[in-house]
Amino acid sequence: MDELNKEIDYRSSGVNISAGEAAVKAIKDKVRRTYNSNVLSELGSFGGLYRLDKAAWQEPVLVSSTDGVGTKLRVAIMAKEYSSIGQDLVNHCVNDILVQGAIPQFFLDYIGVGILNPPQIEQIIDGLIIACQENSCALIGGEMAEMPGIYQMGDFDLAGTIVGLVERQELLPRPALTAGDLLVALPSSGLHTNGYSLVRKIVFEHLQLELDHYVEECREELGSLLLKVHRSYLSVLTPWLTNPSLHGLAHITGGGIGGNLSRILPEGVGAIIRLQRHDTPPFFHWLQQAGHVSDPVMRETLNLGVGMICAISPESLSEFLAIPGAWLLGELCDREKTAGKVEFAL
Prior knowledge:
The chain is α+β, with helices and mostly antiparallel strands.
């Protein structure tokens, strides 16, 4: 048949509807494991239905956030390891609403691909399910978009939206956040999901390493270090969300300690950070030395081992330091005493 007269269908254009249906069928029963009594719809509906339990809340406020995984996706594609990035996405979003005191209720995902590969999609969804279960969050819907004209073969994008609830009187940061508060750091599990464009340039372009390269200083392979799951702080911080001793939280993502802590500081209040070398895990030191990266660039790009900062009343310090891995990072003071909104004391 002449090519000009050949019948054209959706599949010949690069979109395989049956593959999408197969992917949904493979994950449907797994996704149900994240459901609770508030979920009123099934996966595959036009919209996800979620009931507000009025008996459990007095003056509930909805808190929502949307985020992605960034170029950490490229490392996952290189490693052909897709489950961990699903966990990264959920945990990142959980932390983003946690800093306002919110408890996650439900989650929705978006996966955009060049060519739909059901086993790959299933791995991604498995990761989403693991994290949703760990955070008691229902995965009530999502979108799988096959777009061969947008994404190259093997490439994909991943994003998610989370919705949580908080009582209005428990919203963070609290009005009590002020000069004199202490800053307690909770450790990150690694790079989390930020700074990967810089890190990939160092390890793959500058050093020309492979994922199986053994980093002696860390006693671990590079691929494992790069794909460590972004930690969720929900379980350790939930008991503190209604405690007046907790004045504020800052999730340390893109922008580093300074960029994220400054987002919660009221007018006239500054912060002094005393980050000691031994507080920062060896991988960050290795990256800095290998890439000849300056201290300012490290601080504004990476979390340096600090995943979450708690601003607390001084009298509660010993209780917060009882959280595994926690340490005193600094304090808040009058803005006029700091060089910049957040100052790193040497």
